Amino acid sequence: MSSLQPNLPVTEPETALAAGVRAPDFTLPATPDQQLSLSDLSGQPVILAFYPADWSPVCGDQMALYNQILPEFHRYGAQLVGISTDGVWCHAAFAQDRKLHFPLLADFQPKGEVARRYGVYRDHEGTSARALFVIDGTGVIRWSHVSPVGLNPGADGILDALDAFATPHAEPASGALS
Questions:
Q1: Domains of the chain, residue spans
Q2: In which band, very low, low, confident or very high, does the pLDDT at 170 lie, cut at 50, 70 and 90?
Q3: Thioredoxin domain: from which residue to which, for each copy (predicted)?
């Protein structure tokens, strides 16, 4: 038997948008006084990492992993953007504490609007699912993945998706003389 209370409907997220679909544009707060739109990143690959909440152990590990391998994403010219239903002040504290070097966007008001448009809002919890979208420079989703909330999806899927359509930039040889 389930430990859920009886008569409470539990709805999982709608089906996440799939590869081949145009990514819905959005504008969300990146800081208390700055907004970021998906269209601002047009022309380059974009990784959208929806996650349930700042400060949760799995989310913290996931964002720290992405921060650590950010240079790999940048090799493909890709911009990483984290999105959750937390507010901008919570994001600011979380990003500062974790020393994150990519924007965290607040899908806070109206709560979960962008997550709903991507099919990854968890109504019964008021958070987004743990979902990843890799979008090409023309705004088309090339790969999407939804993980169980308690599981860090890692970065292999993201890197495989980027490798399938984006050309990595050459890295300078270590120790090369200028």
A1: 44-165
A2: low
A3: 17-167
